[in-house]
Amino acid sequence: MKNVTHTNGKLPNMHKKSDIQILRWLGLLIFLLGFTVFTASIFLGHYQIDASTVQKASEYIPQEQVQLLNSLSGTRYASILEAIQGLENTLNPEHKLPSYQWNEYKFWIIKSAARGVLAENPSLFLLLTIGLGALGALLFILPGLTALPGIKNDGIFFRSITSKGLLGILLGGYLIAFYIILYWYPEYIVNLIILVDPVSEFLRNKAADRWFLYGFLYTVAVTVMGIRMFIKYRHNRYQLIRTGSVIFFQFGFAFMIPSILERFNQPSMDLKNAWPLNYTFFMDWNIKSLLNSGNLGIFLFLWGILLSFVIVPLFTYLFGKRWYCSWVCGCGGLAETLGDPFRQLSSKTLKAWRIERIMIYSVLVFAVVMTVLQISNFLSNGALFGSYTWRVNKAYSFFIGSIFAGVVGTGFYPLMGNRVWCRFGCPLAAIMGIVQKFKSRFVITTNGSQCISCGNCSTYCEMGIDVRWYAQRGQNIVRASCVGCGICAAVCPRGVLKLETTDPDKRYNVVLDDLIVEAMKTSEELNKAS
Amino acid sequence: MEHLVIIGNGISGITTARHVRKRSNMKITVISKETQYFFSRTALMYIYMGHMKFEHTKPYEDSFWEKNRINLIYSYVTDVDVDTKTVFLEDGRTLQYDKLVIATGSKSNKFGWPGQDLPGVQGFYSYQDVLLLEENTRNIQHAVIVGGGLIGIEMAEMLHTRNIPVTFLVREQYYWDNILPQEEARLVSRHIVEHGMEIRFKTNLKEILPGEDGRVRAVVTEFGEEIPCQLVALTPGVHPNIDLASKTKIATNRGVLVNEYLETNIPDVYACGDCAEIVVEREERHRIEQLWYTGKLQGMALAKTICGERTRYDRGIWFNSAKFLDIEYQTYGFVSNVPREGEESFYWEHPDGKHAIRIVYNTENRAVVGMNFFGIRMRHPVCEQWIKEQKKVEYVVSNLREANFDPEFYTHYEKDILRAFNQMYHTNLTLNQKSQKLFSLFSR
Ligand SMILES: Cc1cc2nc3c(=O)[nH]c(=O)nc-3n(C[C@H](O)[C@H](O)[C@H](O)COP(=O)(O)OP(=O)(O)OC[C@H]3O[C@@H](n4cnc5c(N)ncnc54)[C@H](O)[C@@H]3O)c2cc1C
Ligand code: SF4
């Protein structure tokens, strides 16, 4: 133990700190550069209608559109805005197409018409945008290894971006805008989609669409920020394995397998996406397409049913809903990685809890009603509630599938925490929550009277559970919303909380405080005893 | 309706109020001058480190108090007249009480060092101290912490997160070895050094020197060494706050004197928490308990008494926990820094120097009397049970798994511990594996 003597003089760590700080700044700079190029590249290049444009676009648009497009041959638009405006003015009025179709055509025409440095060098620009972003982020993250392992939430509430400051609000705005454009105005970001064309061609043997871009970004984000989790929680094996799991499921199940299925022209499906999170599963076109594509399709259909109605409840009984929400799910995967820096922003008030219960069970009812309609529609071949089903589907996919799960779900990370969708909206989480609450082996055990009410557990609960409320009275925590991320147990400085599986009947313990009070002897009892 | 007035809204005062409310309808008023609402003193460090904001340290929502009809007054009590049962507030208001609870907590120790009241010199106890520390550490180059207790190491960690170099002056040979046995004290000391903090053992403070601006400029140790610094944190413990009680007819010594029922010498006046000095029959030394859980238990016992069931405060099997930078510490029962007569102990430390366990037992009957754990979480109820039931040390080392409370998938050390035990005592014990859980099938 000779190092336990004086360590007079300069401290080794202080020097290291500044070098590390430089590395982090460099990382940040590179990240911002990538981010800026990414955003700016939307506006790069010009748009040219010529023979090659027509040829490319003809893969995606019907014959009469091709002819119309031919008549525009030779037109050059100087910018993306002009191109969109131009097409709207020339093509759209002449053809009274339903808007969703027109939007689709418009997107492919503009994508085919893109010219210029980016369109000619998509791989280079992929490196300059997402590549630089990922590199910069890693440089920013990796120096975390020089600090000793342990919980280091230092300065989270001093930083604007993680404490709902101006930067946080700006980031939220950016994410929201990105989602809105991606979902409803993809033609504005054809350049970004062109960036991932080489990857898409390589994996799927076809050009990228916006969903491929989305999947790609999603996977990169989960991986890079997953590495951040690996470093941040390298002392905590539960977090390491869990993070490895979400990266694996995002990369393999959500990204690679569907891509490969598409490459072989098979019906593509995210194998881990259970109903009702997967709300298109029972839509008649999906059932038909699965049932009509041979053995694989039938397997996928049966797998979907098995997953949703057997595996989900069974595993939730055995392990709690964490097995899905914080180990497997895609939304959960993003929340646990990209969203981790924002977990402390979820509201812990009773009011938020009340709103949560109203909202999530409403969405569940909505989803169930829609599914009943879908199935009756399928069975009756559209005779029952035909167009009505279609309208309900449309409303659900717009309000719940897109706005809630996407725009709000991710865009609100820096504003309301990383689990807004999972907490207030996800119908699958609602179902698993009911199982977890009433019939499951999962519990967060409170360790006797060790709690010092510090509040770390509640603060860092992404689901907004006031963990401390239970812990400080010596009561176990069994809440429907808990996704079992395990961070409460990790940040607790007194070892009070443990996620575990146990006999379902023993989960609901009494309030220990009350037991202790009861056990204390009154003077009467003492007199009797002596 | 009876009126209960509680002075101090810390854990002990607030627990009294909450449990009285559970049992009775009486009117409850809590007076305090530190903060409007109850907050967790133990979380103060996290505010300075940016892990939490002040609002996160409040264990109850602000609406809780009105809902539970607990009336809060944000004011300072200047005096109490126990004859007329009147409480005097600084703003001139007075309150009549039927029952009064003194729960005024502690104050930081200062040992009369020259310069101890200079600007830039402070203790760390209250919310105001956090604000002051924020002021005092603005653009400073070096800080000195005096006193190596639990608050001292918290402050070292806090300053470390702001990249402020720290010199830690500790009177003992190793950190906190007036409480911890040698091995544990060294373990923590090594960890402090590993974090790049400078720690001077067996070093006392002599005086604190002012600079030209009147603020602290340096400290001088008793060896005559001058250490330049712009902040001096004094953390040599706390003492009961009897500023108020000592002005009244309520009997005080080091704290407010109470019996095991937490009753003072004046009828209908009680005291609990850090400020209480408990006189226990048949025990020579009075008890001053300065912990979160003891404050809570005292409040719970007192609430019963106030509501008519006169109840003896019983803290049960002693325990405590802390976190030394990254190393968690739990202790159960009684572990003294030097072995007491008739007691021996078994100590195991992992080669990484960050996981350790000590089991103290009675030499004669081998019953366990106390346990220390470093870097391993243990189940409080199980450890408590072992001590209560006087389990033998052999039983405990064979059943450690039952008490393990580490997160799933963590490395388990029970086998290594048992092997070390078997070697040392030439025994052949085997591990009792009874608490294997389904989800922990995969953990080692
Ligand atoms: C930094 C720090 C960390 C700690 N960490 C731990 C830990 O990890 N574990 C643990 O067990 N313990 C810990 N403690 C000790 C624990 O916090 C205390 O034992 C406990 O808070 C005492 O509670 P109390 O209710 O007795 O008094 P206090 O919490 O001190 O409450 C007394 C209140 O009364 C007010 N008051 C006093 N006089 C008057 C008056 N005349 N008029 C109006 N108001 C008045 C004071 O301002 C104060 O707000 C820590 C203490 C500190 C300072
Ligand atoms: S983090 Fe731990 S000690 Fe703090 S309030 Fe939560 S359970 Fe209690």
Briefly, what is this?
In chain A, 62% of the residues lie in helices and 3% in strands. Chain A is mostly helical and 530 residues long. Among the domains of chain A are: 46-115, no CATH class; 435-513, 2-Layer Sandwich (Alpha-Beta Plaits).
Describe the model:
A three-stranded antiparallel beta sheet of chain A has the order 2-1-3. A two-stranded antiparallel sheet of chain A has the order 4-5. With 530 residues, chain A is mainly alpha-helical. Residues 1-15 of chain A have low confidence and may be disordered. Helix content of chain A is 62%, strand content 3%. Among the domains of chain A are: 46-115, no CATH class; 435-513, Alpha-Beta Plaits (2-Layer Sandwich). The two termini of chain A are 53 Å apart. Chain A contains 26 helices and five strands. Chain A has helices at 12-40, 51-57, 63-71, 80-90, 99-113, 117-120, 122-141, 166-184, 190-195, 197-204, 210-232, 237-263, 284-291, 294-319, 322-325, 330-337, 350-379, 386-411, 413-416, 420-424, 427-438, 456-459, 467-471, 487-491, 512-519, 523-529; strands at residues 46-48, 76-77, 114-115, 442-446, 497-501. Chain B is an alpha/beta fold and 444 residues long. Chain B folds into three domains: 3-107 and 239-306, FAD/NAD(P)-binding domain (3-Layer(bba) Sandwich); 121-236, FAD/NAD(P)-binding domain, CATH 3.50.50.60; 319-442, FAD/NAD-linked reductase, C-terminal dimerisation domain (Enolase-like, domain 1, 2-Layer Sandwich), CATH 3.30.390.30. Chain B is 24% helix and 25% strand. Chain B has a five-stranded parallel beta sheet. Chain B has a five-stranded parallel beta sheet with strand order 9-16-10-11-12, with helices on one face. Chain B has a five-stranded antiparallel beta sheet with strand order 21-22-25-24-23, with helices on both faces. In chain B, strand 11 (166-169), helix 6 and strand 12 form a beta-alpha-beta unit. In chain B, helix 1 (11-23) packs parallel to helix 7. The longest helix of chain B has 15 residues, at 292-306. The radius of gyration of chain B is 24 Å and the shape is globular. Chain B starts with a strand and ends in a 19-residue tail after the last helix. At the A-B interface, helix 1, helix 12, helix 22, strand 5 and helix 25 of A face helix 6, strand 12, helix 7, strand 21 and helix 8 of B. Bound molecules: flavin-adenine dinucleotide and iron/sulfur cluster. The site of flavin-adenine dinucleotide has 34 residues of chain B, from helix 1, strand 2, helix 5 and helix 7.
